[in-house]
Design goal:
With 256 residues, the chain is of the alpha/beta class. The protein is built from eight helices and seven strands, in the order E-H-E-H-E-H-E-H-E-H-E-H-H-H-E.
């Protein structure tokens, strides 16, 4: 029987992919969940190369039934869930006064409700082994602004959700924290920088250092750096850490 099992959502790219591959060093099996079947298979191959057994599940967590399916397939194969890392979720980076109701609904559907449902469905399995959960928020939660209102609002809601789960987790033996990444160089970040460059009439090469300077950081983060933080949070060394929102943003947020 597999000794330890981690589930990672959003595992086909960016932070989720890096986290799934990183956890393959620490867990016997990694369940990688994402919508894109082709890119998910590449993640699965990397997980296997790192020494863990992969289970790739191409599912859309915006659909309520998907959470049930993730938990069912994981328990059918491995009989346990030791860690759940919720990363999936792309929120429209639109101005507060431009976003439609449909965009708000879609933004909440995956990043907030997808993580909420999956955590609830996995809770009893996590409770039985005193497991750990991480929910991915974002540094924008610390300082909501009109240009990124949806991202900031949903990220703040996720950090609050993690706090609520963590209080129940104290009684149930489930550790719950949230991570608030700052400007990490993912495909989504590159797309955002391309829009920023066009708005500023700059080339992408010129826009990247300018945006970093405006954000008050010396460089962009890498997905692997966030993945290392995720790995720590679900490791034995972090067992006394729960109910914490951990910001890793290169110093972008200046508040205490």
């Amino acid at each position: 029987m597999t000794r330890s099992v981690a589930i990672v959502t959003g595992a086909s790219r960016g932070i989720g992919r890096a986290t799934a591959i990183r956890l393959a060093r620490d867990f016997s099996a990694v369940v990688a969940v994402a919508r894109n079947k082709d890119t998910l298979q590449d993640t699965a191959a990397k997980i296997r190369a790192e020494g863990a057994e992969p289970l790739a599940l191409a599912l859309d967590l915006r659909e309520p039934a998907s959470a049930d399916e993730v938990v069912k397939q994981t328990l059918d194969r491995y009989r346990r869930i030791d860690a759940l890392i919720n990363v999936a979720g792309a929120v429209p980076q639109s101005d507060l006064f431009a976003m439609t109701d449909a965009e708000w609904t879609d933004g909440l559907a995956l990043k907030f409700h997808g993580a909420r449902r999956l955590t609830l469905k996995a809770w009893e399995a996590l409770k039985s082994v005193r497991g750990a959960v991480v929910l991915t928020s974002g540094a924008t939660a610390m300082a909501p602004k009109p240009a990124l209102a949806a991202v900031a609002t949903i990220n703040a809601a996720i950090a609050a959700l993690a706090k609520a789960f963590s209080e129940r987790g104290i009684a149930d033996g489930v550790q719950v924290n949230s991570v608030l990444p700052g400007p990490v160089m993912t495909d989504r970040r590159r797309t955002m920088l391309s829009r920023y460059a066009a708005a500023q009439s700059l080339s992408l090469d010129d826009a990247m250092p300018r945006f970093a300077a405006e954000a008050g950081i010396s460089r962009y983060g890498q997905p692997e750096e966030i993945a290392d933080l995720m790995a720590f949070l679900v490791s034995p060394a972090a067992r006394w850490m729960t109910g914490t929102a951990i910001r890793m943003d290169g110093g972008e947020a200046k508040a205490i």
